[in-house]
UniProtKB/TrEMBL annotation:
<comment type="pathway">
    <text>Purine metabolism.</text>
</comment>
<dbReference type="InterPro" id="IPR006674">
    <property type="entry name" value="HD_domain"/>
</dbReference>
<dbReference type="InterPro" id="IPR012675">
    <property type="entry name" value="Beta-grasp_dom_sf"/>
</dbReference>
<feature type="domain" description="ACT">
    <location>
        <begin position="650"/>
        <end position="723"/>
    </location>
</feature>
<dbReference type="Pfam" id="PF19296">
    <property type="entry name" value="RelA_AH_RIS"/>
</dbReference>
<dbReference type="InterPro" id="IPR012676">
    <property type="entry name" value="TGS-like"/>
</dbReference>
<dbReference type="InterPro" id="IPR045865">
    <property type="entry name" value="ACT-like_dom_sf"/>
</dbReference>
<protein>
    <submittedName>
        <fullName>(P)ppGpp synthetase</fullName>
    </submittedName>
</protein>
<feature type="domain" description="TGS">
    <location>
        <begin position="395"/>
        <end position="456"/>
    </location>
</feature>
<dbReference type="InterPro" id="IPR033655">
    <property type="entry name" value="TGS_RelA/SpoT"/>
</dbReference>
<dbReference type="InterPro" id="IPR045600">
    <property type="entry name" value="RelA/SpoT_AH_RIS"/>
</dbReference>
<dbReference type="Pfam" id="PF13291">
    <property type="entry name" value="ACT_4"/>
</dbReference>
<dbReference type="InterPro" id="IPR004811">
    <property type="entry name" value="RelA/Spo_fam"/>
</dbReference>
<comment type="similarity">
    <text>Belongs to the relA/spoT family.</text>
</comment>
<comment type="function">
    <text>In eubacteria ppGpp (guanosine 3'-diphosphate 5'-diphosphate) is a mediator of the stringent response that coordinates a variety of cellular activities in response to changes in nutritional abundance.</text>
</comment>
<dbReference type="InterPro" id="IPR007685">
    <property type="entry name" value="RelA_SpoT"/>
</dbReference>
<dbReference type="InterPro" id="IPR043519">
    <property type="entry name" value="NT_sf"/>
</dbReference>
Amino acid sequence: MSTQTLQEIIKESSNPKLIKKAFEFAETAHQGQKRESGENYIIHPLKVAETLSKMKLDPQTVAAGFLHDVPDDTQKTFQDLEKEFGKEISFLVEGVSKLGKLRYPKNGILAPPIEQRKETPVDLRAENLRKMFFAMAEDLRVILIKLADRLHNMQTLNALPPQIQKRIALETLEIFAPIAERLGMGEMKGNLEDLAFPYLYPKEYQWLQNTVKEKYEERTKYLESVKPVLVEILKKEKIKPIDLHTRAKHYWSLYQKLLRYDMDLEKIYDLVALRIINKDVETCYKTLGIIHKYWKPLPGRIKDYIALPKPNGYRALHTTVFCLDGKITEFQIKTPQMHQEAEYGICAHWAKKERVDLKAGIEKFAWVSQLRDWQKEITKPKEFWEGLKIDFFKNRIFVFTPKGDVIDLPEGACPIDFAYAIHTEIGDHCAGAKINGKLSSLSQSLKNGDVVEIIIDTSKKPSRDWLELTKTSLARSHIKNWFKKESHPENLNRGIKLLDEEFKQIRGIRFQQVPQGKKEELLKTFPYKDLESLITAVGEGEISPNEILKNLFKEKEIFLQRPLSKKSAPRPESKTQGIFLAGQTGIQIRLAKCCLPQSGDEIAAYITQTRGASVHKANCKNLTNAQKKWPLKIIEASWKSPEKMIWQVSLKIKAQDRIGLFSDITSTISSLGINILSLEAESQPKNLPATINAEVEISGLEELDRVFRQLKQVKGIIDVRKV
């Protein structure tokens, strides 16, 4: 069975060698291990990889599915994975490992009575955990691997003790199923809910099974008799559907619907529906008209989700009619693409590698609609995944236009993001911004409640720097598209100029001075036929010069590691700065004195009225008591990952001398949380620019880039270089 499954996964993959290598590595690492069910442990990663393969995900994600438990459950480390499989796969596995540490508390949370879900379906603690789940996953593929992992864990849940079964089932129902729904993965959501249902509400599940089993069989048999009649009708009208099949409603979804209809099964018309898959949208609408021509539709039961998709992106035509023998029957009509999207959600776009055609005129976008709108601009799968750093799942801010319209943006967005969120033309010609009536720089981070007015200048064009300032993928894609429209020679020259500036700034050499053989190595990493195409892509904004630099030189080649001077002090970070609070930002954090939690302890936080969040050990008695009295004041918390290596870097800053220049440079660097070791001015003749030498502590190239960008915003600064 396992051999056959592996062969199918290998057959489906575009990189069979990687898949085989990942399986063999995992099999060796898990050798001799058994699951609670008694089966060999390797069966679990194999099932996870199989699910990811069926989602048509890239080979790296499927390989990470095989390897996702290796560092946590075997002697192998993340370093071993990176050595064998590279940074990308190691990063994905590490992300899954981090998410594995986020879970419902073992005690104190019970499944609410099922009837209550009709009135209060949202559990705030669960919502906080969902937010935290998304915030900690830096790559959407990490979440997809975790969903596949949870699916198989739920399928084998019967091997665990009852108390653990309930906790995992509740976690699945409250966290994982809603996450799948937000990603438009209808089949995954339905399966997770149905698997959790019997463990949380066994009596209700048993009642439903006993009540609807015969109904399911009866309806399925009836629809099988409708099929040939429908095929004949469509044939007369010269329509040949690609597929006709029945779809039974998931148990949990059915029970939720019964709660809304006073538990009357006769009012549920979509217990089993007939799906019609047509070649295109036009044929879908024709089929709808033909069905209504032959069978009378039920008033108010025609749903056009193609013209107006559901918030999670679901598209189809639904109609309920009085069918053969007058029986009320639901038909669902969609294209193959719509069917794939409904089954696999966001993964369908990865698999299809095609643009999504949205009807115009939808003004109020839900988050998935915004995501699909962005996908119109991005057709390369690699760019789609890399750009999707969970903009849509991190904390959101709401800002206003001068007319009072609300614009929804990710935290940290700037006025350029705002401008592109309104219209492409406004973004392309954005010359400045007023925030709350005051002129502000385009790099200013927006805050909740800000009123933003964009100053437009038709002669203004997007700047390459905007790609570094913007936070939304939609804005970045529009900026890149603008650069692409320019001619090839202009983009090639711009690419050379940008690379020269980057290399001079960091390495003190021009890009052309890098040995040809070393530059040719770049073509193994980036998908371009020659160096000219690669350099043009830099000019178009497809690739940042920083990415080229990082691929040519390791950080230890760029930053010469030196012992920190006596003047140096460790970058200040209190213990509380190393703590994540679920879905919360800007809250003062303190460690509870009653239990004094240390890094690595399981923790949770209690929100006080006046003193911010008090962080306790998860098993602290005071926290347990507070949880009983004020459950909504308890939120999830976790420790951040340890800091990276710190490098000592020398900078040379040239600027027009003025009063306050030193102060502005110091405050700009300090505002980024960077430690300044020294800051000294060279003596220069009055007619020459001032030269300032700075010694700072940097965690890597990305942080150094931020320093350069922010310093260049300071009035009077001409140039900033690493010495």
